[in-house]
Design goal:
mainly alpha; 6% strand; single chain; 2 strands; two-stranded parallel sheet
């Protein structure tokens, strides 16, 4: 969501879908990823700095997608919940197709079902991380992103 206006200028027929997830999970996962990648480009890996950068990046992403919606309307982006996507992925794809008034063919649905069957969650292991190693807490991250969570009714893990 950093460059939605540029994306839809270059691709005016683009159909945007935003998956919403508990920000404590998103921030933790992103921090963990950056911790693994950063040593390829730097000798310094400061976990608290990574956390600060990820929070700032997500702040910008949220602000930009909000601005995009303000300019193009709430329906310009189809919203789905990550928890719903995990629970009923085909049902969520039906929702996305319906949102954009696109037909979901039996062939496409069968292809999606095959992809899901061939690639179950956890097939390559589980991504394990801890917010605390980055100087963060789930409660603090959720508080920081409270307005976003409320606006999109994001289910939060307790």
């Amino acid at each position: 969501p950093l460059y939605l206006n540029d994306l839809t200028t270059a691709y005016p027929d683009a159909q945007l879908v935003m998956t919403h997830r508990d920000p404590a999970e998103v921030v933790g996962s992103a921090c963990s990823l950056i911790r693994l990648v950063r040593p390829m480009f730097s000798d310094v890996v400061d976990l608290r700095e990574i956390a600060t950068q990820m929070i700032a990046t997500f702040d910008i992403m949220i602000a930009r997608q909000n601005a995009y919606r303000d300019k193009h309307g709430e329906k310009s982006i189809c919203d789905i919940q990550y928890t719903d996507q995990l629970r009923d992925p085909i049902g969520q794809m039906r929702k996305v197709y319906a949102h954009f008034d696109e037909p979901l063919t039996p062939e496409a649905e069968a292809g999606m079902s095959k992809l899901l069957a061939d690639n179950p969650q956890g097939k390559h292991g589980k991504h394990v991380y801890s917010l605390e190693e980055f100087g963060l807490t789930a409660a603090g991250v959720r508080q920081h992103f409270r307005d976003y969570c409320e606006r999109f009714d994001i289910p939060l893990k307790q």
